[in-house]
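hey m, so remember when u said the tokens were messed up on ur end? i reran from scratch. heres the input so u can diff it against urs
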Amino acid sequence: MKRIIALMAAVLFVFAVASVSFAVEEKKAAPAPVMAEKKAEPAKKEAAPAEKKAAEKIVQVTGEVAAIDAAAKTITVKGKKGDVVIAVDEKMLKDVKAGEKVTVKYTTADGKNTAKSVKKAEAKAEKKAEPAKAEPAKPEEPAKKKAPGY
């Protein structure tokens, strides 16, 4: 009986020591991923400006083109809230003339407005001035009957 009790005590002691050693190894392993996350954070910070650029707010202004500066590649649009100077590319610059009504979608970065699209606004007065003319209804001609045998 004494041998059985001694054997059980020895087995329990081995399990106790083994469980403590596994617990210590798990605590040592846990800080390693934390350090890896800290090293990965600077990479996330570098990626953050690219994400901000993707999430830039697009603003729209509709108004008359007040001025065009071909040298600086900018147009000034006179909108409801005031004049807005917007940088455009060469293609957009060629399509726009002073005095035209346009709708410009642009973003603001570093205090500079950059056009994403420039569309000429259709004059509403022209649409109202030319009402759709309805043609008078023509009397229907009776259908011609085909002669038998054809």
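this time it looks ok to me. The chain is about 45% helix and 30% strand. if urs says something different then somethings off w ur setup not the seq
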